[in-house]
Specification:
Layout lengths: L11 H14 L1 H7 L12 H6 L3 H12 L3 H15 L2 H12 L1 H20 L1 H15 L2
Amino acid sequence: MTSAQIDEPPNAAKDALIVRFMAASGIQARIEGGSFLERYALGGSPLLTAAGASISETLDALRVAYEPHRLTWQEEYESHINWEFTEAELEEIVPFLEGPSGQHFLEARWRMDAYIGTNTEHLVEQIISAAAAALTK
């Protein structure tokens, strides 16, 4: 399925659906806390290595540095959701995401990605090694 590719600003009803979509999907919480930056504070990350600080200190520094830019992420997500989905689609999607089945879907998708990512790490390493070997020939 392709995106709706809507360029005009949303009307009030669609704007309200976008706000609900972001809350139900967890996007709003990630924007507010900057949690998508956490990977840059994990062990072995260049930021953590360069800073010589603890993970919690690095996370705090990331959040402080992120805060002046938070509105950019807010606007980017709102704009993209408006561009991606029609109002009619959001009218179907949002109630699903807000309900128990939708929340289960979101949690299960996260768990599925996490478990499969862990269970296939060795294969990813093999694939990267094979690709690197092919490039050095």
